[in-house]
Amino acid sequence: MSAIAADEAGLRALVFGGAILGGGGGGSVAAGLQSVHEALAAGVPRIVPLAHVDDDAILATLSAVGSAAQASLSTVGPAHFKRALDLFESFSSRTLSGYVASEVGPRSVTYGLRESARSGLPIVDAPANGRAHPLFVMGSLGMHLRPRQATATVAVGGAPGSADYVEIAICANVSTAARIVRDRAAQRGLALAVVRNPLPAAFIRHHAAVGALAFAQRLGRVLLDRLPEGPSAVLASLARIMGGRVFAQGYVVSASLADHGGFSIGRISIICTDGSAVGIPVCNEFMALRVQGRSIFAFPDLIALFDQDTGLPLASAEVRVNRSVAIFTVPRQRLILGSPMQDPRLLAPIERLLGTRIAVTVAEAS
């Protein structure tokens, strides 16, 4: 395996591939492309396969916490991640050998790019999850199953010197750290840059979505290459590569998102061309595809909405009434996922937030 292309064209493809795998979450394409611009202005980032990293190398997870409805993740800038990393190494007493992204989305695939260009440390192609997810613990590399083990977490956000500026350093299990960081982001109405979980590469290998960045870059290249031919060509190519399909086409009749405890919660309703109705509950990401009260697909299955005019995938915050969309689905078995995606209990807090059951069995999803 070779290093992922980290030139402008390669990183642009990575962002657009992240937008497909984001399933409505993981930030916006605009924020991802801005992050690419900032990284390349700072130097040359490196993205390397996990196989190129020593087993005892210590890697930290980079993420951002905040809702699309409440505070754009684009408000987390290079200065926030730089400060968080500086605090993290001193607080954790660990010397880092590289970074991993918490998830794959249009903004989140760029976590660590500028830091890599500045420090020379690589981003390792072993993100905590190969798609975007709403819960901090879903990017915990299985550490949520070790409640007695404390780990370091640092979060930074807001304008330095302002009353809303936040710096948090926590040594706790990942569930406690998740609650503290999410609560602070919600209280201040901020997005926070987060550095967490210094873990050896040997451990990460068993829990991460190894190779998911390379996969995202491949998807992004296909999207950009086929885009001049129109949305149908894009979706046909993606369906072949991903093992997915266009579930339906239609137009949006309602789309409402509101912040609730630092999450973007809501529902999107679509009338399909055959006259049927589809409901999509949203918790940052598109969480389920519901027809006649039944979940046909549900997270971690990938549900993506593509704009029928532009051929591009939409973030949940970008969905508007009367927009013509294609609903594209990929079963979970065809995705590169982190180990927490095998834990169905992690859906419970999302179902409480949404006030409805969304879970579907693996057999039903396929």
Would you spell out the secondary-structure blueprint of this structure?
Elements: H1 8-21, H2 29-42, E1 47-49, E2 58-65, H3 78-92, E3 98-101, H4 113-119, E4 123-125, E5 151-157, E6 166-172, H5 174-188, E7 192-200, H6 201-204, H7 212-226, H8 231-242, E8 245-260, E9 263-272, E10 277-283, E11 285-286, E12 288-291, E13 294-298, E14 302-307, E15 324-330, H9 348-354, H10 362-365
Parallel strand pairs: 1-4, 2-3
Antiparallel strand pairs: 2-7, 5-6, 5-7, 8-9, 8-15, 9-10, 10-11, 12-13, 14-15
Helix pairs in contact: 1-2, 1-7, 2-4, 7-8
Summarize the structure.
With 366 residues, the chain is of the alpha+beta class. Helix content is 29%, strand content 27%.
3D architecture notes:
The protein is α+β, with helices and mostly antiparallel strands and 366 residues long. The chain has two domains: 8-204, CV3147-like fold; 245-365, no CATH class. The chain has helices at 8-21, 29-42, 78-92, 113-119, 174-188, 201-204, 212-226, 231-242, 348-354, 362-365, and strands at 47-49, 58-65, 98-101, 123-125, 151-157, 166-172, 192-200, 245-260, 263-272, 277-283, 285-286, 288-291, 294-298, 302-307, 324-330. Strands 11-10-9-8-15-14 form a six-stranded antiparallel beta sheet. Strands 3-2-7-5-6 form a five-stranded mixed beta sheet, sandwiched between helices. Strand 2, helix 3 (78-92) and strand 3 form a beta-alpha-beta unit. It is globular and about 60 Å long.
